[in-house]
Q: What sequence folds into this?
């Protein structure tokens, strides 16, 4: 048996040991979006885990129950005005009022359109506070900027793919091993763009947006519809 | 006109603020977020394309948005939940996309967005019993980020549940623009 085979075998062993009870929870209403893609990546690298989508209507009690039954919970969601969507807050409020957590490990992922970490970070802070107030064990998270452009495509298509993909894969290793993921992982992978890139990027995106709206027969300069 | 959107399911600070503002002669429209019917945003993308500037979900947001687009100040009043706003307030916030400007601009060297045809004053009041320093800081940072991305100005306040009417009077003074 060569070295790599031995390594592979021992990897498999840890997979089955740790991943029997990972809950991957998608907090985006878009089932094929970037939040879901990141969870699929975890599922394939970590070799398992149950992937659940937050239902957009009706009771969230079943999901709250699934959170209690899991040993490790990974929540991935989009950034809506600087933090997670309402429906996830609703789940956290509900799970908190039901209670009964016993040191479940919680990891968080938030992705948004803007290329800045500070735009999206509040989501992770909220999850951490939720964990601390409800006897879960906060294990850190991952902030992904420029996630809107990906629109569910793999990280290999990200404009910072060379740094982001390996950084996210290291994050997955933390989930696999059950260790706490440092913020530096995602921080070092995405330095904010410089002045010229920022200017060009905003011009380009604006042209794209204006074109899309025009193609629908509308005009951005119209007065508010409301 | 000032629009107040408040979560009154726990404490009625929104109504207290409304009363103070009315007394000082400010026009107020007050929506009680936990009593109106607002569905979560489905991120369908229609307001940014097919029905530009307009949400396709027919619920009470169709009444709230016309008030926001004509207001001078918007005040969100919410229990501080995990260092942010409650589910009731967040539902309304998520549905404000149709009145945002889809274009990008640069401010302080960073890309931002803004509101369309409008510059509102944007305030947030978070209340709770014995909020930790971490919760307060998080709540204030959410307001700060909101101001950056919407390109608006305003203030964030933390209110202790045991506060007296004086406290809300003071806030009413700070958020009145006349
Ligand atoms: C209501 C709403 C609010 C949003 N607010 C922000 C925001 O504040 N900052 C940002 O960078 N992106 C924002 N976005 C963009 C999403 O975060 C982005 O498209 C993300 O990639 C969606 O993830 P998903 O594909 O998993 O749904 C917003 C999108 C919606 C629908």
A:
């Amino acid at each position: 048996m060569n070295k790599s085979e031995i390594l592979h075998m021992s990897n498999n062993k840890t997979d089955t040991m740790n991943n029997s009870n990972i809950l991957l929870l998608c907090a985006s209403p878009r089932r094929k979006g970037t939040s879901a893609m990141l969870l699929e990546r975890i599922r394939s690298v970590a070799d398992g885990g149950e992937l659940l989508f937050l239902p957009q209507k009706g009771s969230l009690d079943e999901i709250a129950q699934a959170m209690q039954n899991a040993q490790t919970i990974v929540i991935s969601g989009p950034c809506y005005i600087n933090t997670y969507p309402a429906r996830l807050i609703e789940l956290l409020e509900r799970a908190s009022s039901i209670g009964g957590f016993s040191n479940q490990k919680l990891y968080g992922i938030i992705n948004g359109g803007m290329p800045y970490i500070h735009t999206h970070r509040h989501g992770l802070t909220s999850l951490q506070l939720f964990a601390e107030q409800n006897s879960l064990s906060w294990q850190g998270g991952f902030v992904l900027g420029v996630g809107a452009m990906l629109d569910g495509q793999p990280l290999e298509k990200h404009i910072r793919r060379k740094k982001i993909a390996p950084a996210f894969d290291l994050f997955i290793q933390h989930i696999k091993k059950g260790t706490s993921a440092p913020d530096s992982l995602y921080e070092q992978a995405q330095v904010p763009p410089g002045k010229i890139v920022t200017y060009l990027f905003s011009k380009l995106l604006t042209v794209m947006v204006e074109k899309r709206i025009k193609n629908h027969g509308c005009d951005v300069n119209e007065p508010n519809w409301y | 006109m000032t629009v107040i959107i408040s979560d009154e399911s726990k404490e009625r600070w929104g109504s207290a603020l409304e009363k103070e503002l009315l007394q000082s002669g400010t026009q107020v429209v007050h929506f009680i977020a936990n009593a109106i019917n607002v569905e979560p945003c489905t991120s369908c993308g229609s307001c940014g394309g097919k029905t530009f500037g307009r949400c396709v979900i027919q619920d009470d947001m169709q009444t709230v948005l016309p008030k926001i687009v004509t207001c001078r100040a918007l005040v969100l009043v919410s229990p501080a939940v995990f260092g942010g706003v409650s589910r009731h307030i967040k539902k309304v916030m998520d549905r404000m996309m149709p009145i945002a400007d889809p274009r990008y601009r640069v401010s302080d060297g960073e890309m931002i967005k803004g509101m369309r045809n409008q510059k509102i004053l944007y305030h947030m009041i978070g209340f709770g019993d014995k909020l930790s320093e971490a919760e307060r800081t998080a709540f204030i940072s959410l307001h700060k980020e909101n101001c950056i991305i919407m390109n608006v100005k305003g203030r964030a306040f933390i209110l202790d549940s045991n506060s007296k009417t004086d406290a809300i009077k003071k806030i009413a003074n700070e958020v009145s623009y006349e």
